[in-house]
Amino acid sequence: MTPASARMDNPSLITVPVPLGERAYDILVGRGLIDTAGARIAALGARAAAIVTDEHVGPLYAAALTASLEAQGLRVSMITLPPGEATKSYASLERVCDAVLAARIERGDLVVALGGGVIGDLAGFAAAVVRRGVRFVQVPTTLLSQVDSSVGGKTGINSRYGKNLVGAFHQPSLVIADTALLDTLPIRERRAGYAEVVKYGLIDDERFFAWCEANWQGVFAGGPERDEAVAQSCRAKAAVVVRDEHETGDRALLNLGHTFGHALEKLTAYDSRRLVHGEGVAIGLSQAFRFSAFLGLCPPADAERVEVHLNAVGLPTRLSQVPGGCGTVDALLDAMAQDKKVKGGALTFILARGIGRSFIAPGIEADQVRTFLTGEISA
Amino acid sequence: MTPASARMDNPSLITVPVPLGERAYDILVGRGLIDTAGARIAALGARAAAIVTDEHVGPLYAAALTASLEAQGLRVSMITLPPGEATKSYASLERVCDAVLAARIERGDLVVALGGGVIGDLAGFAAAVVRRGVRFVQVPTTLLSQVDSSVGGKTGINSRYGKNLVGAFHQPSLVIADTALLDTLPIRERRAGYAEVVKYGLIDDERFFAWCEANWQGVFAGGPERDEAVAQSCRAKAAVVVRDEHETGDRALLNLGHTFGHALEKLTAYDSRRLVHGEGVAIGLSQAFRFSAFLGLCPPADAERVEVHLNAVGLPTRLSQVPGGCGTVDALLDAMAQDKKVKGGALTFILARGIGRSFIAPGIEADQVRTFLTGEISA
Q1: In chain B, residues 324-363 whose CB comes closer than 8 Å to chain A
Q2: Hey, is the C-beta of A162 within 8 angstroms of any chain B C-beta?
Q3: Do B165 and A131 touch (CB under 8 A)?
Q4: Cβ–Cβ < 8 Å for B155, B124
Q5: What is the C-alpha to C-alpha distance for residues A185 and A261, in angstroms, rounded to an integer?
Q6: In terms of residue numbers, what domain contains B239?
Q7: ipTM
Q8: Could you tell me which of A172, B77, B142, B328 has the fewest CB atoms within 10 Å of its CB?
Q9: Tally of structural domains, chain B
Q10: Are residues A61 and A172 in the same domain?
Q11: How far apart are CA B369 and CA B379, in angstroms?
Q12: pLDDT, tens digit, 9 for 90 and up, residues B89-112
């Protein structure tokens, strides 16, 4: 490891501020940032840190992170959980909260989430409720968590009634996104995370989508394009979060592709061997544009362009690409309607008038969705 | 039951506003308010309500509350838990959250806490985290919860590492304190709640303390004095909470009597047969004033006056009054220091320069506390 003092001047470092008043924080993006994470985290002023990680990520990075925090004089403890979505449970919440309390973390101290979205969501939620709120730092280790879940303060666990149904809005004090960690990420996970990158272009930034079309190979290869893609995604998400921290309006735009995507995840029983979140989102993005075109809202050429790009990077875009199938139209519609009562009536979708021109569309009739899906399933 | 329209003009109704900006709410105090609770809660605009209660309180009031909410067109469900402090657990949190989700409570809907402090703290915490926050209403049924825990937004459960160590700041949308419900409260619980009433006078309102000395019998008997005592306590607490919602400063004054009190609860193993919270607080209030006098900060006559009044209503004031004893000076000191490292150094206490003149006193030497306690234990 290079000495912290030298590496603090990381030339590739991009800082994305999240200006949320007294909850403002920075997202740091760059290669090799984990080497100087100790100094950066210590600069927040804590005396102790509890690292929360999983059995995949911990063995790779936790020892170095612990050493760099201890070198700064922090008392460090570690909580290691099994990897996977099942870890976002009430039982894990109890385990993490009690471990954080056992580590004598006080209000001025820190919880450090070292891992992907599961660890970030769980550790962030524990930080939100231990002593009614201690600070926390996100060190996301997957592309998906670097561009999405580590930013914006949504934390939580799953309930038997659905994903992320129990949680808190709790902003991190710092996000450190080391893009070099993605070098060892399986290609399937890199692609899945990339679906969320593309999403930001599709929501309201046609130029960024065009940049993705031209630069995606650099993003996957780990060149400066990757840092730029992560940073731009964080900027886009931060802008939405600053406008609507608690999701009472605009923040719903971030769900572009997710109404379809969540339904597909549900119908594949959240079995990551069949479909991971980002793959569901990729199909969902394509479906949202195809549905918008079906409704006459969006030029078919734009829907085509979305699909071509997602396919180019190796992501699925059609219902028929769901391994094992996605069930019947009725099952899909059921899964999309959170409440059975909505079925006979109207649903809210995020639709688009074109690439970069998404909008919240309440009042979409279930019959229109049914007709569209019938065509898609047989396609 | 009188029709809601008539009873809404309850002549004995006292409204205490809690002006917390977008989290502002009212505390309603008066006899018989539970009869019109349905209309008042429905006025908040929800479509559904999940009542959380316990096996003692539920059978007394839940059916009437349910009926009055249903009469207003709300869909109502009920979750009934065992009574007692053990219910403030992770397991109960899971049970309440899942029941609230099963009841299809959405962000616009309500959780209604019907019970004492345990139910209010637990239901409030569940409301804070289900869907990252749904609204909730407190219907406190004990004097302690009417004057203390139902106001101010502190919610939570206990951990093996201590009480209330996991929770959230989540303000209720309405508090309905029906003082008639206290008529059937055992005298021991009425006395225990009264210790918190007296506390507000001791903190910063000598006139209210004098009013308590003159009117306590009316408070216990259930006359208009009771409504006034509850309302004045809520006003006092609300004023502190508005100044310092998240307890970064002044709110600590509300802990007057609680450093000693919590230590005594801990040393009696939270066994309510030996000591209930309010009894610990009564002894703690007296000890805080006696310690202030010992340090030369407070006139001994004021400490005497505190003790005389607490004894008059039947509350304990001395360490020797703890049934089964409170252990050694070292055990007491240990229990008071949250962190072993504090032992050799300084502690923070809430002390007083006289009745109504309390202040936060950091830097109290452990040796001074030891000398004081040695005298008290042998007294």
Answers
A1: 339
A2: yes
A3: yes
A4: yes
A5: 22
A6: 187-378
A7: 0.92
A8: B328
A9: 2
A10: yes
A11: 15
A12: 999 999 999 999 999 998 889 999
